[in-house]
Amino acid sequence: MGKELIFETLRHQKTPSVPWVPFAGVHAGKLKGYTAEEVLTDGEKLFESLMEVKKLYAPDGLPIVFDLQLEAEILGCELLWAKSNPPSVKTHPLAGGEYKIPCKCEIPKKDSGRIPMILDVTKRIKKEIGDTTALYGLICGPFTLASHLRGSDIFMDMIMNEQYVKDLVEFCGEVCMAMADYYAEAGVDVVALVDPLVSQISPDHFEAMLNPTFTACFDYIRSKGLFSSFFVCGNASLQLEVMCHTKPDCISVDENVSLPTAKAITDKYGITLAGNIPLTTVMLHGNQQDNMKCVVDLLDSIDHHNFILSPGCDMPYDVPIENTVAAMQAVKNTEVVREMVAGYEAVDDSIDVELPDYANLAKPLIEVCTLDSESCAACTYMWASVKDTKDQIFGDKIDIVEYKYTTKDGIARIRKKGLTNLPTLCINGEVKWVSIIPSRDELVAEINKLL
User: Fold this and answer.
1) Contact partners, residue 415, CB within 8 Å, separation at least 6
2) Which domains does the chain have, with CATH numbers?
3) C-alpha pair distances (Å), 36 with each of 50, 153, 292
4) What is the per-residue pLDDT across 88-122, written as a single tens digit (0 to 9) for each?
5) Beta pairing partners, 135
6) Beta pairing partners, 370
7) How confident is the model over 265-313, as pLDDT tens digits?
8) Would you say the pTM of this structure is higher than 0.70?
9) Assign residue 270 a region: left if phi > 0, alpha if psi is -120 to 50, beta otherwise?
């Protein structure tokens, strides 16, 4: 059974095969013709969509929702909804000069916001397929939640007021533990803290300001008799060691991280690794053969012990259904699929693009290369930082542009620039920040050098 396969892997036992966890997220809604907003606000539509994921993709583990704005909405953030992406955070109630910490009375309750709907669906899914499928409860991690509340100011806070960051992250950790309680009561098997912004700070900052809270959260999840997972997006290669220090049962990474490199680290700490089928180049824009070959190559690149195969993050809404089915077949019938794709070479269907003439620009040009600022939290904050800097300080004195890895034009531009990790911020064609969100002072200083 898939559920037992997940359990054995998270207990670090030998398994007969590699488990498969498709992070369908809002893509689940596509399977039934529902928009992202519908599947995240309507319990019946969410339930139908999850049952369709079970039917089509035969998951060993199934996330209930992938919405990192759920807790933020309850705590006062206004959301911007979309048809084919999870919502994004529009306002930050703690932004500004004052160093405020929410009152503990503001921690979400079981009847707050959309929580009742999600818990009801969790219970229904548990009753229907919980005996055969491990259920995942995904929670916005404490640092990303703190960033939702504080906005991009938090990156300057890490330099100017370390204690404030610790206190705010600690409050957000208490939110995570409350959510873990609710998911535990509803019947999930694995609680995952999804914290994409961890990849955007240094390991030293993580150890100094985040480690105690993450460690406390994973200890708490363990005390509830549940498995835990630490989900990070972006190039978290430098952060993997300090993430392991917090002692989750599993760490999930995306395509920005080398699986063999990551597994050498997680194996050292006796932690399961999960990942990392590329979301856009393979799942969204590839074909069935691309997906099958990618999965076979990933499985061939590492030891299968302590490993769960999954997409690198929340699957894009418009991933072709046949591509996910192909990935599923490749992990469940690897030897058969290996023969099917033997000798297959992907067709290069990239488009030709021209990069700006950086030597002759009329004014400074900031290029933000992202997975997609509408769906990737780290990308959201990097792009928001640039937009705010232009709007509030420089205006028409500078130009800004975002290249998204979810579009063929964006992929072509990012590849032509030779970038391998996202998000990345370039000024006049020169790479300035890779998977690190600059503070406003740092960004302003770099722009002023050119004015």
Assistant:
1) 350
2) 2-340 (3.20.20.210), 358-448 (3.40.30.10)
3) 13, 29, 27
4) 999 999 998 899 999 999 999 999 999 999 999 99
5) 62
6) 404
7) 999 999 999 999 999 999 999 999 999 999 999 999 999 999 999 999 9
8) yes
9) left
